[in-house]
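Following the same procedure, backbone shapes were mapped to integers, as reproduced here:
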Amino acid sequence: MKTKLRFHQHGAETVEFAFIAVFYFTLLFGVFEFARALYTWNVLTEATRRGARMAAVCPYQSPIPVNVALFNSRNDASNSSVIPGLTKEKITVRYLDSAGLVVDIAAGGLASNIDFVEVRINHQHQMLFSGLFGLFVPDWTGALLAPTFQTTLPAESLGADPTFTPPAEATTCDF
């Protein structure tokens, strides 16, 4: 009688594993996705810091702060190789006065009124395993809306050299 019951149990472990595996792998890949999202958040915070630091010492509206925020060299304006989907269009550099209002030199503002520089990044984190999580949340696209990352620093030289004697040479950011 005992041998007869044992033969009726063939494949039971496989069926049990199939039920449990869905939840196990969802949890496992969820941990991977959380780690990737945390890494992305930290890198984007660092990117704004790097960009603001360069904007504080580079000339007004130089492209170098955006390139540095993309983790590229100063003269490389290609998309970021560190964060997939991070492009220069997602990075905003603003020059602010002491009241926090934008100073636009092209519209008649004075460079001497710039007291702060601000770098903002708007980014949407795309998950790798969104199909697996779609089993539990059917309408979800797999994109995490990140907060706006922002760093504001006091403007320093903005590329100007206070020790020059006329005639002044064009300011650069080549350190």
Q: What stands out?
A: Strands lie at 91-96, 116-121, 124-126, 143-145, 149-154.
